[in-house]
Structure formats: structure tokens, C-alpha cells
Write a structure and sequence with these properties.
Layout (H helix, E strand, L loop, with lengths): L3 H6 L5 H4 L5 H13 L5 H25 L1 H79 L4 H20 L6 H31 L2 H13 L3 H23 L2 H14 L21 H35 L9 H9 L3 H23 L1 H9 L1 H16 L13 H9 L1 H11 L2 H4 L1
Helix pairs in contact: 5-6, 5-7, 6-7, 6-8, 7-8, 8-11, 9-11, 9-12, 9-13, 10-11, 11-12, 11-13, 11-15, 13-14, 13-16
Length: 432
């Protein structure tokens, strides 16, 4: 019987019971459905299932009986394995407890140190911020006390203001109400300092007072405006002289002055304002017009002299004043920013303006053209007197004026009239 059971069992389909997610209800419904079709008998299926169950039980019994000792040995091994597993679990629990203790010993102090470090950093930032705010308020108070003072206090006020500017650039104090309120007043104070320094500079240059000019330049240097101020000052002097030169040789202005002089004078220049139809003076008015022209030329030489001595004064003071830290003279700083020598650039501008306006006047008026040519010796004499006066204030000796670049530039400006005068004075026999 034992041998016939496996043979009979081989006809039983066990595969349907071995599929994943086996559902007995689905299997039973399948059998009933086949029975309804007449393909399978339910009684036969039940008998087959019963026989298969008995067969499986018999096979299990045979397996247990055959391998009884091995099963007992494996069961004992499982008990030993459970003992080992319990030991491992105990070790893991011990390790977990040790990790918790170690975490408490390390993590908690680490978190505390991290918190204290953040607090320390913020305290340091706050302390530094408060220190800068206190410094700002101290400088603002000192600036307020220095403002009503004289020239010396003005220089100190400019230095204090520069410290305030540096402090504001280095620190972000925006949003602090006490600082914001003071910053609003700084621009007003800055404007007053610049205005006072401008006035001091103008007065010092007019009076040739080196101390005043030096104090004013120190103010502009402290405010980091020295190069801008020197450029503006030289441009102002140059443009002013340009305007004066243009006015000096303006034919309409000469005619107007001649007219007023002729009306108010009992001299022999009566009717000096009358001109010919072509805009030139009449024969009788020509002497008066010539006299007015050369008086104007003498006056413009004085104005040019005043402009030159102011430039030389600026140069001397700039060369004397130095940065306290680098010991670089103000003149070197200005020259580097202006890309050239300040005095030479002024002379270039002056000679260019003089040449431009004299030539333009000669082209616009036959009278001026003839007067400048005929009176060239007088113009040259005025030039030499001008050079002699200027040489006293420049670094060039009076005997060296002819070789100085400035003299060469100015003589070149009137060279056109020199050539015309020489041509006119050349004997006619030589012309032939």
C-alpha cells in the first residue's frame, strides 16, 4: 500500500494549490463551474481531494519517521540558536544604552557649546556695533563744537567729518535711529564746511595769503575733494580770462565805450562813436578807438597777471602741503589726477585763448587787424612787462624768461601779428 500511494499520488494535480495567493473559494467555484458543464463530477473531486490529503499525511508521517533523529537534532540546534539570538539581543540593547549615554555625554555639551558660540558671536557683533555708534556720536558732537570756530577749527572740522565718512563706509549703521537722525545733519554741515573753505580759498588767493590757501586746501583734501577743487579752480580762472580776453577785443564793446567816451569828453576825440557803413571807425574816431583798445590790452595783461600769480600760489602751497601718513605732497596727488602739470596746462589754455580771440578779432574787424599789426611793438612790450611781473612769483628767474616754455607759448600766440609787422616794416627795396 505504501508503494501504491506515491504512484496514485502522481495523478493528483498539486500545481493549482502551489500558486501564489491561492484562494480556496476561487478554486471551489472553478470545480462547481466545471461540474455544471458536465466536465467534472463534484463527488469525484471531493474523493480525490480526500485521497490527496490522506496521501500527504502519510508522506509527512513517513518523512518524520525516516528523519526523526535529524529533526530532533535540528530542533535542538534551533533552541541553541534562540539562546545565541537572545545573547545578541542583549548585547544590542547594551550597545544601544551605551550609545545613548555617549550621546548624552557628547551631544548635549556640543549643543551647549554651539549655542554659547552663537551667543558670543552676536555679543561681539553687538559690542562692535555699539562701539562704532558711540564713536559716531562722539565725532558728531565734536564736529558740532568745531563748526562755530575760525579757520583752524574749520580744518579740524573737515578732518572730523572725514573720520565720520570713513566710519559710515566701514560700518553698516543704517536703521539705527540715533545714527540716521545725525546723518541727516551731516550733509548740511558738509555744505557749510565746503562753502567756508571756498570763501577762504578765494580770499587767500586774492590776498596772496599762503596760510589761508593752505588751510582751505587741507579742508578739501580731508573731504577727498582736493583734485576736483583744483580742476574746478583752474578751469574757472582759465574760462574767466578767456571771457575777459574776448571782451577786450570785442569791436562792438570798443565802439560802445568810444561812443560813451566821445559824448562825455571835451577832448579832440569828439564823435568817437560814429562808424563807417562797414562797421569801422571814421578817420576822426580812430585815435580814440585805438586808445581804448590799448587801455584794454593793458587791463587784460593785469588780469592775466592776477590769474597767473593765483596759479603759482596754488602750486607753491600744494607742493608744501603733504599727506601726514604717506608724506606725498598735494601737488603730486593733483598732478596724477589731472594727468599733467597744473601750471603748464593753465599756460597752454591761456595762450590758446589769447591766440584764438586775437585772430578772431582781426578777422572780424579791419580796424583791429591793422591796430594789432601797427601796434605790435606796444603789444610785445606789454607782454615783456607781463613776463617780468610773473617771473617774480614763478620758479623761473627773470633773465631766463625768454627760454621758459610759458614765454614761448605766449609769444607763439601773437606770432601772426609779429610776422605781419615785420613784413610791413621791411623796406620796399628789399620786398622787390
Amino acid at each position: 500500500m505504501a508503494a501504491s500511494i506515491p504512484e496514485l499520488d502522481s495523478y493528483t494535480d498539486y500545481d493549482s494549490f502551489l500558486v501564489d495567493h491561492f484562494d480556496p473559494n476561487t478554486h471551489a467555484n472553478s470545480i462547481i463551474h466545471q461540474s455544471a458543464k458536465g466536465e467534472l463530477d463534484i463527488a469525484t473531486s471531493l474523493s480525490s481531494l480526500s485521497f490527496s490529503i490522506d496521501s500527504l499525511n502519510k508522506q509527512l508521517h513517513d518523512q518524520v519517521t525516516t528523519h526523526y533523529n535529524d529533526l530532533l537534532s535540528q530542533a535542538a540546534g534551533i533552541r541553541e540558536l534562540e539562546t545565541v539570538l537572545e545573547t545578541v539581543k542583549l548585547g544590542l540593547r547594551t550597545l544601544s544604552a551605551s550609545m545613548e549615554r555617549l550621546s548624552f555625554k557628547i551631544k548635549t555639551p556640543f549643543e551647549q557649546i554651539k549655542t554659547y558660540t552663537i551667543q558670543l558671536e552676536r555679543l561681539q557683533v553687538t559690542s562692535e556695533m555699539l562701539r562704532r555708534v558711540l564713536r559716531f556720536l562722539y565725532l558728531s558732537k565734536r564736529l558740532e563744537m568745531q563748526m562755530p570756530g575760525g579757520d583752524l577749527e574749520l580744518t579740524k572740522a573737515a578732518l572730523t567729518l572725514s573720520e565720520v565718512d570713513a566710519l559710515l563706509q566701514e560700518s553698516d549703521l543704517e536703521g539705527i535711529h540715533v545714527v540716521d537722525n545725525e546723518v541727516k545733519n551731516l550733509e548740511s554741515v558738509r555744505g557749510r564746511i565746503v562753502e567756508s573753505a571756498d570763501r577762504m580759498l578765494q580770499e587767500g588767493m586774492s590776498a596772496q595769503n599762503q596760510a589761508q590757501v593752505g588751510s582751505a586746501l587741507q579742508v578739501f583734501y580731508s573731504l577727498k575733494r582736493l583734485d576736483l577743487k583744483i580742476v574746478a579752480m583752474t578751469s574757472y580762472l582759465s574760462n574767466r580770462l578767456h571771457s575777459q580776453i574776448k571782451q577786450t577785443v570785442d569791436i562792438q564793446s570798443i565802439q560802445k565805450e568810444a561812443k560813451e567816451s566821445g559824448m562825455n569828453s571835451s577832448s579832440g576825440f569828439g564823435g568817437g562813436g560814429v562808424r563807417r557803413n562797414n562797421g569801422e571807425p571814421s578817420v576822426g574816431a580812430a585815435p580814440l578807438w585805438t586808445s581804448i583798445l590799448w587801455k584794454r590790452m593793458e587791463k587784460i595783461m593785469d588780469e592775466m597777471y592776477n590769474g597767473c600769480i593765483k596759479i603759482y600760489l596754488l602750486e607753491r602751497v600744494l607742493a608744501r602741503k603733504r599727506d601726514p601718513l604717506t608724506q606725498i605732497s598735494f601737488l603730486e596727488i593733483v598732478s596724477s589726477s589731472m594727468d599733467g602739470n597744473m601750471v603748464h596746462r593753465f599756460w597752454q589754455s591761456l595762450s590758446a585763448h589769447l591766440e584764438l580771440e586775437l585772430k578772431a578779432a582781426a578777422r572780424s574787424s579791419q580796424f583791429l587787424h591793422q591796430a594789432l599789426i601797427d601796434g605790435f611793438p606796444r603789444l610785445l612790450n606789454l607782454m615783456h612787462e607781463f613776463f617780468s611781473r610773473v617771473s617774480v612769483h614763478s620758479a623761473t628767474a627773470a633773465s631766463e624768461d625768454v627760454q621758459s616754455p610759458e614765454v614761448v607759448l605766449m609769444l607763439r600766440a601773437i606770432s601772426t601779428f609779429e610776422s605781419a609787422y615785420k613784413l610791413k616794416m621791411t623796406p620796399r627795396s628789399n620786398q622787390r
